[in-house]
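Entry 14. Ran structure prediction on the chain below.
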Amino acid sequence: APQPTAPAASQAPQPTSGNNAGGGGSNNASGGSNNNSGGGGDSFTGDGTFFSPGLGSCGLTNSDSDLIAAIPAPQYGSNPNPNSAEVCGKCALVKGPKGQVKVKITDRCPVCKTGDLDLSPSAFQQIGDFDAGRIPISWSFVAC
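Output, C-alpha cells:
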C-alpha cells in the first residue's frame, strides 16, 4: 500500500481540524490568487503529494480509492466552521507527469504551499509514480 509522503523538514505544521494523515509541503513559492469560483479561471502550479484519507476537514470520510484532494490551508480559507469552507466539494482538474485526473476537494493540507495538492493514492497514481513521492503539477478549478 502507498505510504504518505513526509512534509519538508523546514515546514512547521499549522493547526487544523480533521484528520490529514499525510504529507504535502513544498519549497515551491509559486502562487496564484485564491480562486474559489469552481468554474475555471486561474490555474496553479506546485507539488503533488499523496496521503491516506480519513475524516477530512470538510466533514466527509473518504478512502484511498476516492478521487479527492486536500488543498493548502491558505486556499482552504478561514471559515469558523471548517465543514462549511467555500472550497469544500469543488472539483479541480490536476495535470501531472503521467496525465490528468479530476478530484473533489474534501480536506485541508496544513503544510502545503499555495498551488500544491495532497491527493488520495488513487488520484496520485493516475498522474505520477508513487516512488517519486512528490511530482510537479498544475491544476485549476473545474465544474464537478
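The chain is about 10% helix and 30% strand. Will compare against last week's run tomorrow.
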